[in-house]
């Protein structure tokens, strides 16, 4: 009798070794069966690792006599390994708080232009695209809710493959291409603690494919309304101890709204090498250049009557923003010390030049930053109980950070100023250093306690060297504790709770919010900086997750008491110069509910009909502000819901009808001026060839052509007037795409 272990596997060597050990046990069991019934044939088949190509054989050197006497027959034994996405989901499930994971296989079934497409249906995550471009409003639990769309992200740690993209300046947004992503981790609030995500909003980690998981060749194309088109080609493979993945993307969109044309070109690549079963390293490189038109903001009546128009000021100035070519280099080395401990060492360098041509002045920015991470984790037995410990160091530092304003008009105060004249030059500096430790301890079966703490060392500075000179610098030390529990009541239900502190320093450029020049060519620009305190908060969270009767749910309630919240406001004068004013607020409260539910409504042999829902309730308000009392914080809806009825057939056809519903949004701090509530409907259909990496789809967005404001960057006080603080969402559009993969 001949035994063959079919591996068809390109997984890491250590995982292969563990799998082969399991396979040997199965073979032993198979031999006993053969001895008992030599004339029978046994075959066990399960799905193997995705994109597998290699085969391995295990053949007994001296088969038993009874086996040799039987006729030759084959017993094929295969095993199923969890995908990287499933492994990540299992790891996130051990965190006592709100987390979720996005499988890009599902996201790729429809249009993928911006991160608003990628991050949809995520409870607690509010993300809207500005004019269909890369400039997003991104907020988790109210982080950075007033930061405009043309700025670095604030309040959320953003990462590629566990390495930070966030710097002391915040997060540049141009590198975040949605294609070339395997899965995305969303860790809300302090649940991002293990990554050093100590900010109020938590963290988002984008994980790229490798040569072990990617198609050898893949091509994708999308096109549709508003002159939209996007293309991607990618390749991945394993070559001995090495593997690689590379993705090239290019896109263009003419825009639904006037002056919102957007174009991009990007490269996303990584190379891995395994020295042995215990030591491996992976190098990363990302490059992306973008150009986005800037339409400014509209009033409520302007959006209702004609959302395609742009603000006249920025039409006359031909406002646009250019990222001429941002580069991100990284490396992550993993060392398995033994079966119970692991060390990860990471490093990255980032160069993000910016050219903002929005207002009456041109703003050139230069940012070069470096970051490093160290994470040591180990599993132990303490007093007979399981113990999981992680120690980490995360550090981010500005190497070079500056901003130069130059004249770009010949009107008003610039009538006699030559084009390109330097009006102001400022330099920025910042360093973040976080030392954190966390322990999960199984007090009794399936009941885990979490204890954690972090020391935070931060520094910020800004100085104006022209037209006058001034400087401001701050430094501080903080302590950020965390405690929680997770109880797995049954295999289907778990509950959790935690209390934690968050710590968020201002972005370095936000310090340049002091006095303004009142005369000369630099009139209206900030002449000095201000000291901004670190935003801190104490957050309480309880929740549950699980599955029962074809329903999978996750529900979290949180309450955050926030001190020195970093808020921004657009005034008529600051808007004229494309700036915002930043300051610390009086005490505020952030509380909310984050809920998701996926249900299989009907299942049959040929497919299923399902319903997925995501609901976010957000109540952010002042506590006892001397001017605004208990007013709600503007800029974000209190209620936001997404729901989709989805049909999936085993033949490969799928179709979904979904709705997005938002309550009204305040556009000023006095809460007297609102963007109306809205609901929009979309339909998506497609076909995936069973067993093949081929796909086509067709999407119909905003079926009723609803006029609505998707983004609100609030003004200060309305006083009954309509402020230009809204940006419209897209009207009715049709989009289609095709994807072809080969191995």
Task: Note down, in words, how this protein is organized.
This protein is mainly beta. It contains eight helices and 38 strands. The longest helix is centred in the N-terminal third of the chain and has 24 residues, at 13-36.
What attributes characterize this protein structure?
globular; 743 residues; mainly beta; disordered N terminus; five-stranded mixed beta sheet; 38 strands; 23-stranded antiparallel beta sheet; 8 helices
Q: Report the count of strand segments.
A: 38
Cα distance spanning the termini: 33 Å
Shape: globular
Which percent range fits the helix content? under 10%
Tell me the Rg in angstroms: 27 Å
Which spans have pLDDT < 50 for at least 5 consecutive residues? 1-71
Largest sheet: 23 strands, antiparallel
Structural class designation: mainly beta
The percentage of residues in β strands lies in over 45%
Mean pLDDT comes to 88
- How many alpha or pi helices? 8
